[in-house]
Amino acid sequence: MYTYGPVPSRRLGRSLGVSPIPPKTCSYSCVYCQLGRTDRLTCERESFFPREDIFIEIVDRAASSEVDFITFVGDGEPTLSADLGWLIRMCKNHISKPTAVITNGSLLHRQDVRTDLLSADVVLPTLDAGSEEVFKRINRPHGRIDFDAMIQGQKDFRREFNGQMWTEVMLVHGLNDTEEALRDIGSAVGSINPDRIYITTPIRPPAESWVKPPPPDGIIRAQEILKRTFTIAEDESGEFGLESFTDAGEAILEIGSRHPLREEQAVEIERLFSQPGTVKRLMQERELVRIQHRKIDYLLPARFVRSG
Ligand code: SF4
Questions:
Q1: Distance 281 CA to ligand 1 centre (A)
Q2: How far is residue 234's CA from residue 201's CA, in Å, rounded to a whole number?
Q3: Residue 59: domain span
Q4: What is the phi/psi pair of residue 50, to 5°?
Q5: Does pTM top 0.90 for this prediction?
């Protein structure tokens, strides 16, 4: 499946996720990634799947569910798909729903990537660091991604793009929540001049178990330094789109592979399918693993749980 959801998104309402790339394929391997460590670290764009098949599935899912946004997000970095521009344009021309792209922004120095994103309504690039040193520690980029080129790419895109650009800054305690790191981020974000700045924290289980959200004073410091920010430090609420699933086990594993589920959300899915005992069975069969993060129990598909 290339699509999932709609899932409740804290910024985009009911968001139909579209992944035009293979799982865990990215130009970064962020320490906080909810998908675990990147399997395929690359910055080469490719046509990974038949684009018509992806589009047919989007049309089908958008028609059968209540959707606020069609969101290209990927199980990794969506701009690695050479079909992204075609897919966005097809959605714009044939489906009356706004489109969004959640990207790490690393390939915006490329003209073809910027051109592909021009048709989107909202683009949400990541910017977690204002210095090369912090960039390498938090995002662990592919060796060919250059920090200055990444920043310049975001600036160039801002100039060329008429839609909404919402920059996302993920704060990790001890990495980018110090005054110095935040001032560097503030200076970089100021030079890009996005429409909005979202501060986020590692709400869901991260790739590295030592990753922690900043304490409240770290978030306040970030709000003061970055200014005019929106802060997302709470779990989302709302229902997941289940229309395309035939049973609770399939839904829990599929949604959980893109969007880590709190235990209560997984139990709610088994209730909606009237299939009590599904979560227990999946755990007994070792398909699901319980992980605690921020004192909250999450159930992750076992293949996502990293060792070491
Ligand atoms: S958080 Fe995003 S950019 Fe970072 S490794 Fe995961 S998918 Fe890639």
A1: 31
A2: 9
A3: 3-234
A4: -60, 120
A5: no
155-211, pLDDT tens digit by residue?
999 999 999 999 999 999 999 999 999 999 999 999 999 999 998 888 788 999 899
Query: Best mutation site among 77, 167, 169, 200 for ligand 1, i.e. most ligand atoms within 8 A of its Cβ?
Result: 77
| Atom 1 (ligand 1) nearest CA | 33
pLDDT digits over 28-80, tens only? 999 999 888 999 999 999 999 999 999 999 999 888 778 899 999 978 999 99
Instruction: Kindly give the pairing relationship between strand 196-200 and strand 164-170.
Output: parallel
* Number of domain units in the chain: 2
19, 4, 6: which is closest to 83 by C-alpha? 19
Ligand 1: residue whose CA is nearest its atom 4: 30
Q: Is residue 308 a part of any domain in this protein? A: yes
Decide if 42 is inside a domain: yes
Q: In angstroms, what is the span from residue 250 Cα to ligand 1's centroid?
A: 24
